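Exercise 7.
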Amino acid sequence: TANGGNGVDVAFVSPQPLAESNRLLIIFRDGVMTLWDIKASRVVFVSGRTTQQQSHQEEKNVTSSCWACSKGSKVAIGYDSGDIYLWAIPDIFSAENSSSSSNPNLPLQRLNLGYKLDKVPIISLRWVPSDGKSGRLYINGFSEHAYLYQ
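Solution. The predicted structure, written as tokens, is:
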């Protein structure tokens, strides 16, 4: 891991699908994401910490991530709390329209691996596309009390 200048470690770096030589998604340990344009050497998009995390100082760390679509417009991020957030990311085709109507600090979907108060940390996430429009997200979670695979 590397430090991003704000005192928070970089957890994952991944090239954006369909823009592999142009863009990188950098995900910090605290959940903040930065989409970096390599050729322009500038930030295209910043998102990640939810309003709930900011206001309640909710402490959770990123433990895994993966792209959750073939064109690079969604990313799944797993946390040590068992939460999985699905975030919208501007793809290479909508780069000029990055001022979309959606709030970048709200995930598209929030899931939790576990039952009620169980906090099963997400160990790995893997997206497997099936046809051109859909796919499956495979999730591994592990704690001292549970091992879950969904």
